[in-house]
Amino acid sequence: MIETQILKVETTKPAYQAIHLAAEILKWGGLVAFPTETVYGLGADAFNPNAVQKVFEAKGRPADNPLIVHISKFDQLEELTDNITETGKLLTQAFWPGPLTIVVKSSPFVPKIVTGGLDTVAVRMPKHNVALRLIDVLDRPIVGPSANISGRPSPTTAQHVHHDLNGRIDLILDAGRCDIGVESTVVDVTNQPPLILRFGGLTRERIEQLIGEVQTTEDDHFKRRSPGTRYRHYAPEAKVVLFERGDKLVFDRLNQKYFEDGKKVGYIIYSTDLIGEPAVLGRLVGSNIEIYSQMLFQLLRDLDTLGADVILVESVEDIGLGKAVMDRLRMAAK
Known about the structure:
This protein is an alpha/beta fold.
């Protein structure tokens, strides 16, 4: 078993020794968990198939679930694709670095294990000094799926990573809690109009303000180009049950039903008038959607730790960042 080391790093000015140690581990085919503005990623050299295979093994990830490749400068995009559309250029110039992933036609140099055997590759430039500095020092793109056991809530702190992957990876760079808390938005720019394959930290509204109409799809031909779209994801050990905003009647009925079934009931709500017995493992969050998204995976993990069998979750409005939150909750409730 690997001895997993945790190194604390400052976000504004990451320590030289920590970043260079992490880059050396990646250079020699090891695995490093690193912070981004969305969630913690599990890094490996994107051009080293053996290292990438270790990512799949550490996470228990299906081999046909493609990985997002992270870059630190625009020149690195040319190593990954020979064909970037004008729409892709507009989006990256406006939103990189940031919580946007674009799907483009893959160059022949990208290992098929990275793309899940597809002819497309998903790429993003994270907005986090630690991630950017790590890629700069390595001087190669790195894969960066969420640094957790596949299917579990994504990690937004180094402690989440350690809980899931201790003994499976070499190093965790700890820069504190992630700012956004849900993964990047994935846009397929090979299609016209572009397709949002996964909602995330960049809202549909901001994208459409820049390039006009974008669409969504349930077509597996396209959905499979993005992670987080086909398998059960983001799920705690407890059963997740969604109910409509402010629906006290349904909340009370579900609460009572599971309690009578002998289940330990927890909840995540923001409508204060819903609170009541017999549920005792409550988490009340504010109506600010940015705070909700930042705390979502932490709350799910907390209620698991407290032993909840069922988690009742109040739905949020399905617009803006709320679309990303609801996407994660629906996947968790599958």
